[in-house]
Design a protein that fits this description.
single chain; 241 residues; alpha/beta; seven-stranded mixed β-sheet; 8 helices; globular
């Protein structure tokens, strides 16, 4: 069932690099989860893939008019891919998930509903993987940022597009969204999710294995939070006031 709308309410953004064999099954699962609930589009951000990812997407786009493909000429990383997808999104609510099949699209409706039901005060709904063992970096991050999030590495998230675009961009941004969303004065909803083995292939994105880069980013986010000043309330004055 193809539900293209001139104004989709929800954009599903999937960053991928060399995930050709995972494309078709994941799109089917996303569609099964969202069809009949929201007008939506699926945006695959092809981050410089060198396999058949582009061809697989192009073939499916002939049958699905709500599927879009953005392509990076060279691989720029997961944060850059997510950002490209959000900037191109037409939906006011954006949901993300990894393209390797480990994130189960069945949890997307719960994340999207958490944003809708939370009203303007909720800026992010974050998936938290059940049974996920805490990493040393996660512990350090939590003690520095106090973001109330035990699992920032889960790709399943939903947020208001306008809130994401407020964030200062840097490589690794997607791993620090909870702290940065709180920095802007929004609350976070949490949804328990269950990961599963990838459909095929090996991981193409990594972050916490690059510990030194992670610590540098952590220091930068901590500085941003410390430097944040209250956002002034601006009221337009008209000739009738």
């Amino acid at each position: 069932m193809d539900l293209l709308s001139p104004e989709p309410a929800v954009s599903i953004v999937v960053p991928v690099r060399n995930e050709a064999d995972n494309i078709a099954p994941l799109i089917e699962e996303i569609s099964s989860a969202i069809d009949g609930r929201w007008a939506y589009e699926i945006i695959y951000v092809n981050d410089g893939s060198t396999d058949a990812t582009a061809d697989r997407l192009a073939a499916i786009m002939k049958q699905r008019s709500n599927l879009r493909q953005l392509r990076h000429a060279t691989s720029s990383g997961q944060s850059a891919a997510v950002r490209s997808g959000v900037r191109a999104a037409r939906g006011a609510i954006v949901a993300t998930l990894d393209g390797d099949g480990q994130n189960n699209p069945a949890f997307l409706p719960d994340l999207i509903a958490a944003i809708e039901n939370g009203g303007e005060r909720v800026g992010l709904a974050a998936g938290q993987r059940v049974g996920r063992k805490d990493t040393g970096f996660n512990g350090v991050r939590s003690s520095f940022l106090h973001d109330g999030t035990r699992d920032t590495g889960c790709g399943l998230k939903a947020f208001r597009r306008e809130v994401f675009l407020m964030m200062p961009y840097f490589d690794g941004l997607h791993r620090f969204l909870p702290a940065l969303v709180r920095r802007e004065g929004y609350e976070i909803a949490y949804v328990d999710v269950i990961d599963r083995p990838r459909h095929s292939g090996v991981s193409n994105y990594g972050f916490f294995d690059r510990l030194w880069i992670g610590l540098m980013d952590l220091a930068g986010v901590w500085w941003l939070i410390r430097r944040k000043k209250p956002t002034p309330i601006a009221t337009e004055v008209t000739s009738h006031d």
